[in-house]
Amino acid sequence: MSEQHKNRISVEIYGQTYKMVGPETTGHMRLVATMVDDKMREINSMNPSLDSSKLAVLTAVNAIHDYVKLKEQVEQLEAEIKQLKG
């Protein structure tokens, strides 16, 4: 079994530096980090009294909410395609 190549990158999210490691391109990892940073700053602008831990949890909740909604849309579209083919 061959080990998949892993890219390494340092990114800054909400003023903290993190090392990311994964098979994705560094551009992809940087995009993800930027999106997380943007979402944290957006939530902070609406709730400036939140500490960074609560801000991180709310950011995660928002990200999973978006994921679930998109997953539901994909499943609905797949069902429609299957119905059209069937």
Automatic annotation (TrEMBL):
<dbReference type="InterPro" id="IPR036192">
    <property type="entry name" value="Cell_div_ZapA-like_sf"/>
</dbReference>
<dbReference type="InterPro" id="IPR053712">
    <property type="entry name" value="Bac_CellDiv_Activator"/>
</dbReference>
<protein>
    <recommendedName>
        <fullName>Cell division protein ZapA</fullName>
    </recommendedName>
</protein>
<dbReference type="GO" id="GO:0030428">
    <property type="term" value="C:cell septum"/>
</dbReference>
<comment type="subunit">
    <text>Homodimer. Interacts with FtsZ.</text>
</comment>
<dbReference type="Pfam" id="PF05164">
    <property type="entry name" value="ZapA"/>
</dbReference>
<keyword id="KW-0132">Cell division</keyword>
<dbReference type="GO" id="GO:0000917">
    <property type="term" value="P:division septum assembly"/>
</dbReference>
<dbReference type="GO" id="GO:0000921">
    <property type="term" value="P:septin ring assembly"/>
</dbReference>
<dbReference type="GO" id="GO:0043093">
    <property type="term" value="P:FtsZ-dependent cytokinesis"/>
</dbReference>
<dbReference type="GO" id="GO:0005829">
    <property type="term" value="C:cytosol"/>
</dbReference>
<keyword id="KW-0717">Septation</keyword>
<keyword id="KW-0963">Cytoplasm</keyword>
<dbReference type="GO" id="GO:0032153">
    <property type="term" value="C:cell division site"/>
</dbReference>
<dbReference type="InterPro" id="IPR007838">
    <property type="entry name" value="Cell_div_ZapA-like"/>
</dbReference>
<keyword id="KW-0131">Cell cycle</keyword>
<comment type="function">
    <text>Activator of cell division through the inhibition of FtsZ GTPase activity, therefore promoting FtsZ assembly into bundles of protofilaments necessary for the formation of the division Z ring. It is recruited early at mid-cell but it is not essential for cell division.</text>
</comment>
<dbReference type="InterPro" id="IPR023688">
    <property type="entry name" value="Cell_div_ZapA_firmicutes"/>
</dbReference>
